[in-house]
Amino acid sequence: MTPLHTALLVLLAPLGSAALITLFLGRRPALASAVSVAAAALVAAGALWLALGGARFADSLEWLRFGSFSVRIGFKVDDLAALMLSVVGVVGLCVHVFSLGYMRDDSARSRYYGGLSIFMFSMTGIVLADNLFMMFIFWELVGFSSYFLIGHWNAKASAADAAKKAFIVNRVGDFGLLLGIILCYWTNGTVSLSALGEGHGLAHVAYSRLIPLLLFCGAVGKSAQLPLQVWLPDAMEGPTPVSALIHAATMVAAGVYMLCRINVLMVPQAAEVIAWVGTLTALYAALCAVTQRDIKKVLAYSTISQLGYMVAAFGLGSVGAAMFHLTTHAFFKALLFLGSGSVIVACHHEQDIFRMGGLKARMPLTFWAFTVGVAAIAGVPFLSGFFSKDAILALAYDNNPAVFAVLALTAVLTAFYMLRLWKIVFLGAPRSEPVEHAHEGGISLTSPLVLLAALSAVGGYRGLYPRAFDGVLSQVPEASGTAFAAVLATSVAVLVVGAGAALAFYRTDGADALDQRFPAVFGFLTSLRASFDLAYDYYVAKVQQRAAMVLNFLDLVGLAGAVVRGLAGVTEVAGFGARSLHTGRLSNYVYWFLGGVVILWAFAAGVL
Amino acid sequence: MSNLSLDPLLLAVAAPLSLAVAIVLGLPKRWVMKLAYAGFAVPALTALWAWWSFGDAAKESHGYAFLSSYSTGLDGFGIGLKLGLNGISLPLFVLAGIVGLAAGLYAIQSGAERMKTYLALLLVMQAGLMGMFASVDVAFFYLFHEMALIPTFIMVGIWGGRDRSYAAMTMTIYLTLGAMLSLLGLIAIYAKSGASSFDLMALRDTLASSPLGEVTQKHIYGLLLFGFGILVSLWPFHSWAPLGYGAAPSSAAMLHAGVLKKFGLYGLVQIALPILPLGALHWSHGLAVLAAVGNVVVIGLVTMAQRDLKQMVGYSSVMHMGYAFLGIAAGSVLGAGGVVMLMVGHGLSVALLFLLSTSIHRRVHTFDMDQMGGLAPRAPVLAALFLVATFASIGLPGFANFWGELPIFFALWSFSHALTVVALTGTVISAVYGLRAVAKVFFGRPSASFTRLCATQPPPDIGWSEKLPALVLVAAMVFIGLWPRSLSTGIDRALAGEPAAVVANR
Fold it and tell me: Is the confidence at residue A200, as pLDDT, over 60?
């Protein structure tokens, strides 16, 4: 098989699976899950074969042409795509296997697995895309699969609302993205990633700043950056494996990946904006995470915060640092989400951490795997998150002290809220009935945890990665000399302060210590979290919906008719209110109408 | 051309028409129900055959294939029945065949009162639609349109829902007026061109060598624009559309919104743009502002405010026509190509939405979305189809509509930056009303009244008689969505080299 065929297989296997499930397996859930898992396995195998085999190529085919405008569909497999594809393949397979256990009793399993396959198809499309058109197409498709899977339990109004919100908020971001692609096309004459990489000297200086920022809007939506982060916490309404795959490891990281793909278009002024958006998002989301009671929402805010790190790293000019953190984050955040899924199943879908406790003894494997994940994200030395976060801190230390300070503070908070979660969930005594009887799940639930825990532990050693990813990983910045010492000291201090404070401060008695001892701080953080939703709700209910109602009223009373007839004769307008026009006066009515149109036309044509 | 061999395009018109005549002459009902399948299938199969063989078919003249002409006795006026397809009319001929088949299948199982008359009228409509897009002669293009339009009024008036007489009257007034104005414009082209023929090829040849003056072009294009504009619900001449579609029986709404409404856009792209480029240029800015601000934004917001499912679909259709007008205003091959793709995509998706709206009504006995909810667990297939239709209509890639919207947005940028930004807001607006409708109808908890209804007569999921016409439409949307080249290559060839391209490069 040539590399091109492999890439096609990786892309089309999940599409075939989705089609098969939709058309024939709607009432055969066992078979549907088997087909979907097999497709995911094919993706993983194909991705690793492509990546490690060292095949690097680009190829494309015309999809539609009007005049000189041509949309092509094609692949660009370079080290960047190979790395991302491997992450998607490995995490995707873990999540599919985990789903076998997690969704065992669900009544709509076929639909679920169909959705997962559509997602895998769309996501590999983004990764392989060789031009911005194709990327946009698959970008929209992952948005659809995300909508579809968040709303899996659509009989719950909250799940249906969350799905709708996710899609619409992403469309707002995509408004900018599409505008950016349009601008890029008309300015550079191409949207091919390879051609853009070769071209230099953009025609319009103004556009050269505007294009990357507009494209970044797409990443703001998809990667849940300020101010469009509001959809991701709500997206936790979806099944937990979906949260792990789509809303933690891969799809939300697609924004970062897209930025790395268009790195050639970046200019310093745009990069600085991007760096600050990422930095502030990291801090804001970490602050929000501190007050959450729902185990998945803590992880959701943590995801937003970590995505902020990646975006900041990109803004500071390092594709390597951004992609490195994307990779390690995919491992440890998927691990944390699947670990939380294991906990949630064991506790009969209890998600409130203050009703858990004592799970260390009852679920030892999940506990140890989760502990590895917590240690990795908190930055415990020699685990994966330590290295990738260190690279970002080193980068910030060299380039932007203010960003460095904020990111270091965020790292303190990260250690703090993660250790809070860890202590409250696993230590102490069980605080509710189902938790007392919790026990470890079957092999489909535990085996992905083990694999991901291993990857989270060692994923930071770049020496372990095959040379195949050197194009990306060799660009990871490394501090040296005093900077090295300063960054290392900061990392360790941050960990000790954050983790120590959380372990000392929180107790396992079923109450939030922050709420009890510092209610003002707790209240502030809660309202900080709610502020965006409040503002958007106000806009939707009070501005948008009212505008719609007013316009609807104007339309109903016959704005159209009134304008046209108003030019012809006031008398007709007066009579319009009544619907008595039916009888007798039909010809009259047509006559006035015709007159009005003719006058309007004459006026517009410049005759009058 | 030989009149002896079987002419497929003529067959597509004659088959449904002769069946309609037979019904009127008293064909027994059991025969009607069986033959009706053939009456709708023959045009669809002809269309698929034409689509399949168009690429390799000999282009006898002006890029037209399958040409044939018949004397009508009106040769003195330059009117003759001349049938043929080029890259622009082929996609619409296909659209008419597919939507006609779906509307026919849906009508046959609908159990409407006076079924024979209902089917006869639909068959007449179908014959008119096939003829309209197959006509190379402008006069017959118009006549076939009238042939399809008049049954619409009758169907709304007799089989319509709430407010049917008011809706039928409003529709009649607006659409008759629009048709009159466009007829005036078409006659003006005939009179001013000096070609003494309604044959579009002759008109084009004559006007290519001696184009009309700028002032003449301006006025004729204005007539056509307002005439066609009313027919395609250009803001603010759109009031008839949501009202009419809200009342129309589903198959009539499917055929009108899906196919017949495209008459105006097709007339602009196939006739007006190539032969009146200066007129088009003169009106383009006004048209673009009306379409972007009026159709897309204002009507988009109005669509959000709708509670009645069918009216919402009607308004959304008005909104999407805004994109089509923007493509025409952009005046380039890219814009016009996008318009043709959008006509097909929109026609398929809006027909599916009207079909499914009626299927929903059968189960919940209302069109008021606030009285619905929680239908998905009871009718999962219906829910899935409605989801597909909604996402297709809001321009998700993978469905045909996307290939209309994308080129139009790109074409629009080189015409007006500001209006591109305005028009792009429509992508968000349509997501809001589309997903809101899905959530209100299918998700969450059932309303109190629907819960009571479920207790007495639980709604079944849709069976094959309703599913089949829906799947016909879905298959076409997905096929074109995945393989747009199957249409765009022909469109591109037909548009290339037209004077319209001159406008773009002014």
Answer: no
Q: Residue B191: which pLDDT band, with cuts at 50, 70 and 90? A: confident
Cβ distance of B407 and A69 shorter than 8 Å: yes
What's the angle, vertex CA A554, arms to CA A550 and CA A559, rounded to 5?
155
**Is residue B1 a part of any domain in this protein?**
no
**Cα distance between residue B477 and residue B469, in whole Å:** 13
pLDDT at A235: 93
| B288 Cβ neighbours under 8 A, 6+ residues apart | B325, B326, B329, B330, B412, B415, B416, B419
Q: Do A64 and B218 touch (CB under 8 A)?
A: no
For B458, which DSSP code?
A: P
Chain B residues within 8 A of A546 when measuring between CB atoms: none
What whole-number distance in Å separates Cα of residue B64 and Cα of residue B270? 12
Q: How many domains does chain B have?
A: 1
Q: Residue window 532-561, chain A: list those with CB within 8 Å of chain B.
A: 544-545, 547-549, 551-552, 555, 558-561
Which chain B positions have a beta carbon within 8 Å of A555's beta carbon?
A: 239, 298-299, 302
By the CB < 8 Å criterion, does A49 face chain B?
A: no
| Helices of type H across B331-399 | 333-364, 380-393
B94 is a domain residue: yes
- B464: part of which helix (H) or strand (E)? helix B464-482
pLDDT digits (tens, 9 = 90+) for A62-94: 899 998 899 999 999 999 999 999 999 999 999
Give the ipTM: 0.91
In a domain, B63, yes or no: yes
Q: Which residues of A touch B501 (CB under 8 A)?
A: 67
B3, part of any domain: no
Residue B424's domain spans which residues?
8-501
Using a CB-CB distance cutoff of 8 angstroms, which residues of chain B are in contact with residue A594? 177, 180
Condensed to tens digits (0 to 9), the pLDDT of residues B333-377 reads: 999 999 999 999 999 999 999 999 999 998 888 898 988 888 888
For chains A and B, CB pairs below 8 A equal: 173
Task: Please give the DSSP secondary-structure letter assigned to residue B8.
Answer: H
Q: Which two tokens stand for residue A475?
A: 């660009």
Q: Which two tokens stand for residue A605?
A: 């044509």
A309 contacts: CB under 8 Å, gap ≥ 6: A278, A282, A325, A389, A392, A407, A410
d(CA A521, CA A226): 22
**pLDDT per residue as tens digits for the range B10-58:** 999 999 999 999 988 888 888 888 899 999 999 999 999 999 998 888 7
Cα torsion for A44, A45, A51, A55, to the nearest 10°? -140
pLDDT given for residue A412 in this prediction = 94
CA nearest to B336 within chain A: A66
Which one has a higher pLDDT value, B449 or B229?
B229
Test B305 with A63 for CB contact under 8 angstroms: no
Shortest alpha-carbon distance between residue A100 and chain B (Å) = 22
**CB atoms B420 and A179 under 8 Å:** yes
What's the predicted TM-score (pTM) here?
0.91
Summarize the confidence of residues B321-344 as an average pLDDT: 94
Contact between A405 and A323 under an 8 Å Cβ cutoff? The reply is no
Do residues A478 and A397 lie in contact, with contact meaning Cβ atoms separated by under 8 Å?
no
pLDDT tens per residue, range A27-72: 899 999 999 999 999 999 999 999 888 888 888 888 999 988 999 9
Which residues are CB-neighbours of B471 under 8 A, at least 6 positions away? none
pLDDT tens digits for range A463-472: 888 788 888 8
Average pLDDT over residues A351-369: 91
Q: First CA to last CA across chain A, in angstroms?
A: 72
CA–CA distance from B465 to each of A9, B108, B115, B255 (Å)? 36, 9, 16, 18
State which residue of chain A sits closest to B175, comparing Cα positions: A590
